[in-house]
Description:
This protein is mainly β. It is about 0% helix and about 30% strand. Strands 6-7-8-10-12 form a 5-stranded mixed sheet, with no helix packed on it. A 3-stranded mixed sheet has the order 1-2-3, with no helix packed on it.
Amino acid sequence: xxxxxxxxxxxxxxxxxxxxxxxxxxxxxxxxxxxxxxxxxxxxxxxxxxxxxxxxxxxxxxxxxxxxxxxxxxxxxxxxxxxxxxxxxxxxxxxxxxxxxxxxxxxxxxxxxxxxxxxxxxxxxxxxxxxxxxxxxxxxxxxxxxxxxxxxxxxxxxxxxxxxxxxxxxxxxxxxxxxxxxxxxxxxxxxxxxxx
Length: 196
């Protein structure tokens, strides 16, 4: 480990950051940041992704994280308005938990697994009309989100997609959804309307 953060022996994979760590400088050798590496690291306020990173997870529970930057030379990711995208902005990788209102670019075709997991401040989101896929756990624990419209191209609402979105009142499905996964809307106590 370096500074309490767990890496593999070659320092190419960041495996786990302890929850109470307040500051992390990711080494320039790191290529992979594991999916759950920063889960519930509530003390971190700022994080810089070096040029070397090719794969990264989400940041649920990182409630203090308000500044996410990507090295200008990194050709895998970019950040816009607190949201991490792949370089071409076709996949939304994840969103900072501090985000409240998000207008996703029309270029985005996919929302990654756990993309908005734990974004308890998110109150409004506009999904692009060309969206084709939503990853599992994508909106889990988005407790302030009141409504969402799922575009025509999305055919699958995956497992745990809106799990425990306690404030969710209305879901509009514009397309012919063929599958609603396990626990997709479990814990959505306020859900009163699903419009097909």
